[in-house]
Design goal:
41% helix, alpha+beta, two-stranded antiparallel sheet, 14 helices, Leucine-rich repeat, LRR (right-handed beta-alpha superhelix), single chain, elongated, Phosphorylase Kinase, domain 1
Length: 511
Amino acid sequence: MSFPIELIFAVLACLHSFVSPDAQGDALLAMKNDLNASADQLANWNPYQVSPCSWFKITCDGNNVISVSLSSMGFSGTLSPKVGVLKTLRTLFSGNQLNCGMISQPCASDSGGSSRKPKVGIIVGIVGGLLGLLLLGGLLLLLWKGRHKRNRSEVFVDVADEVDRRIAFGQLKRFSWRELQLATDNFSEKNVLGQGGFGKVYKGVLADNTKVAVKRLTDYESPGGDAAFQREVEVISVAVHRNLLRLIGFCTTPTERLLVYPFMQNLSVAYCLRGKLKPGDPVLDWPTRKQVALGTARGLEYLHEHCNPKIIHRDVKAANVLLDGDFEAVVGDFGLAKLVDVRKTNVTTQVRGTMGHIAPEYLSTGKSSERTDVFGYGIMLLELVTGQRAIDFSRLEEEDDVLLFDHVKKLQREKRLDAIVDCNLNNNYNILEIELMIQVALLCTQASPEDRPAMSAVVQMLEGEGLAERWREWEHIEVTRREEYERRQRRFHWGEDSVYNQDAIELSGGR
């Protein structure tokens, strides 16, 4: 099998580094010796000249040999393998009776005075193949050493193949592993901003002093993970809204997936409500909490109703709502549940979320919808009003409900709204607005997903439209449901009494 000589040397050119003129001369002299050239052939090929560009039958471009014109000069030796050193060579001799090195394979022959194309492909193919194997082995060795070093926390590395350069989406920046490793001080625990079902988030400072949040995703080692990650990062990157966390860039290696976001200086709503606040840290006042409720609703509305395909968050809670410098709500981690689960094959979809925030139908069936997010949003509203966690076992000490939802619903039914409100507000709130927000929360957390409002309707209710009508309907349903429950309870107890009475009559009658 033969190949065009131009193609062979183009490949060899990619495999070799720069070749000096004297190295080219040495290769040509070796070729001359192997050609069995006579004393008067190629006489001016002088081994003492630095550059061979002035030699007979040699053509150069600058100092690079591009042509060796030895056509039909009657050579009968072998083609030296050192011809591969001439990386810029474009044309070589023909019309000579040569053998290709050790295998005595004819390289070219004459018949009836006609010339044929050179058949140097075999020997050059062998040389190129060996060089390719050596190159591949070197790369594998570098990769193995790089991974081994990366596991040693004190060493920063950035080895070949650690960055998948096939991914490029819009304005997203592709970060290298080392760049993010340096920015987070090797993902130091002291830089952890939070941790959830999708991995840890680290505070980072880039080389230009830009502060970022780096999310190091977990669970990405199964087949298909790369393709799924690329698709879903693209989906996340095009979801742009003032109340959604903007994705700056990403990093992907054979074993790591990382997302890079802007650093939110006021951290999360959960931190401002319940974190270990230091002197000077912000305490969310009531107007800010109303602003957070509306901004979060608008962000979720955009995900559900204005993205194609729509994005379901699946972990809406105060910890995933971040606050920018103006305390504007920014929904984070959207799309990550889909991003993680889409890569799974032949495995039941894993329920992802936080206990106390998970809708009952999602917990029981594993099937989520936008109404799953509505339920989590309702619980987040209760967090804003009360400042408490969705699940708090300390309430057991007071023989109260562990779930925040049940706790608030009970106090609301007893008209004890003051007992619901976060004491950190120091009575600086409007009790009517508190009541309205609780009503929206209870509408969002109804047991049946079909009964919950869409996020667009939630936005309208928070803006003062349509809440009264929905609330009257909810109260009617709740009263009917409670009366039916109490009737069943009375019927159950009455039935037990009748059994006891019947047994007593039979026993007395027998006597």
